[in-house]
Specification:
Distance between the termini: 28 Å
Number of strands: 0
Structural class: mainly alpha
Shape: elongated
Oligomer: single chain
Radius of gyration: 18 Å
Mean pLDDT: 88
Number of helices: 10
Order of helices and strands: HHHHHHHHHH
């Protein structure tokens, strides 16, 4: 399935936009996300985003009338969706023998490639003090992630799947935090393997 279609299913329809308008908005957000990943949140201006996405000033403010903060929030939502989409199809296939090791490998590879620069963390740190709406973006991401792990555990016949899913996600997040701080993925690998003991 096309990644843009998958993302649309995660995000839902942006109210009041035509199909073409939604595609234009998506193009701006995706281009901004790419630029922010490359340079960092504080190094990118609206003019940089306009240039990279071939967007006029009027177009940009049509889709993001409140300016940079509104666009950054949209990028945070986009990055949250990317976290889950990057784990597909392995995340939705959790359950059978072999599926947990395959998912673990995808997760570790994603974060090793990302290294110490996490666009999602940078965006939420930047927006959180003055934009409380960023909190639910993170909460929805983590809740959805945990639910998908929990669904896999149920398919695998694991007892207390909700508790086990919390343990797995906490191990993953702790390992990612250490990777971001040190650049070393060893803790992520060890923590995930321990949390997935009996499944892989």
């Amino acid at each position: 399935m096309d990644r843009a279609v998958q993302r649309g299913r995660v995000a839902g329809v942006v109210g009041g936009l035509t199909k073409k308008g939604a595609a234009t908005r998506e193009r701006i957000v995706a281009g901004a996300a790419s630029l922010l990943r490359e340079r960092g949140v504080d190094e990118v201006s609206l003019d940089d985003i306009r240039g990279a996405t071939a967007t006029s000033k009027s177009q940009l403010f049509h889709y993001f009338p409140d300016g940079r903060a509104q666009l950054l929030l949209a990028v945070a939502q986009y990055e949250a969706q990317e976290v889950l989409l990057d784990q597909q199809p392995q995340l939705d296939a959790l359950g059978p023998p072999g599926s947990w090791a395959a998912w673990r490998d995808v997760v570790v590879d994603r974060y090793e490639r990302q290294g110490t620069r996490c666009p999602m963390s940078a965006l939420t740190r930047r927006l959180a003090p003055s934009h409380p709406e960023v909190g639910p973006v993170v909460a929805i991401l983590l809740t959805t992630w945990q639910q998908k792990i929990e669904d896999g555990l149920r398919r695998a016949g694991v007892g207390e799947p909700r508790t086990k899913a919390m343990i797995i996600l906490a191990a993953l997040q702790g390992g990612v935090a250490l990777l971001l701080a040190t650049g070393d993925s060893t803790a992520l690998r060890v923590a995930l393997d321990q949390a997935l003991d009996g499944l892989i």
